[in-house]
Amino acid sequence: MPEDNIEHIDFKRLEKKAISQPLVTHIYTADPSAHVFNDKIYIYPSHDIDAGIPFNDNGDHFGMQDYHVISMDTIDSEAVDNGVALHVDDVPWAEKQMWAPDATEKDGTYFLFFPARDYDGIFKIGVATSQYPIGPFVAQPKPIQGSYSIDPAVFKDDDGSYYLYFGGIWGGQLQKFRNNIYDENNELPKPDEPALLPLVAKLTDDLFKFSEEVKEVKIVDEHGNLLLEGDNERRFFEASWMHKYKGKYYFSYSTGDTHFICYAIGDNPYGPFTYTGRILNPVVGWTSHHSICEVEGKWYLFYHDSSLSKGVTHLRSIKVAEISYNDDGTINTIDPYA
Ligand code: FUB
After folding, report:
1. What order do you get walking across the sheet with 215-216 strand by strand?
2. At residue 9, does pLDDT exceed 90?
3. 3-323: CATH homologous superfamily?
4. Model pTM above 0.70
5. What are the extents of the domains in the chain?
6. DSSP tally for the chain: helices H, then strands E
7. Does ligand 1 lie within 6 Å of residue 303's CB atom?
8. Exposed, middle or buried, 260 (CB in 10 Å: 0-12/13-18/19+)?
9. Band of the pLDDT at 5, cuts 50, 70, 90?
10. What confidence score (pLDDT) does residue 192 get?
């Protein structure tokens, strides 16, 4: 991933214009997945560090080693860091790069879903459990069978079914897979071919496995055609999220190299989803990643930017801003530095 040219950015001015400030400043945090459990807000972010690894297109400089859960009593209260919830050294199968996680609760157990590189160099997705939303979490000895790539997002539907969405191109390795099979020779499609798609699978009752074959999540334009690889401003790159609003399923994601958070709407958890628009305009820093969570009847976008580190792409800070819907179900685009 190329680092943006940040020399021209006036960070003081930007900080003043920013619509929100970092939720925590004593550590760098990114990729916030937010949930309300027992009337309290819990955020499951990546914990960014400077691992001393040079910048490259594979994202190797994102050398994160552990997770911290951040909690808030209300949306306006102080964000509390609850310490290390899971460290890569305590995950038997994972070698490095603890990237964007997510969490859910079932029958009083909390489940942390996280991607990491296995010792074979391939990203897979693991599960860890705890009795408490803040951990500590104990990892399963092996990754989820059949999982690959990055950025898991777990969604509980109203009927009690749980779905895992995942996938990401470039450093996230999705381009190396076709029909769920890895081949080192696979690459991205050509610009006039359909873009690679995010993935989804329903989880088993214990949430430790996929209960079905991994399926592609179709994102189509207003004519029902799949978005093309060359459509960089709309096609899927990484950072899946699912939320339900007024009975509709909203699949949102990052467009990566064009830096938007976009959304597409469907009638069921598998899609197809029709591209509808942008939720967030580009932030400072190369990556954009988010979650959407309802807190006391209002909807919030949890996101990150690199303003605290003055533009260092792999040292990010989580933030939150309220989102608003129009009567037709569309979301008003947020400009992070309005
Ligand atoms: O945090 C590492 C990677 O950067 C995430 O997995 C992507 O979504 C991007 O935010």
Report:
1. 153-156, 162-166, 199-202, 215-216
2. no
3. Glycosyl hydrolase domain; family 43 (2.115.10.20)
4. yes
5. 3-323
6. 1, 23
7. no
8. buried
9. low
10. 98
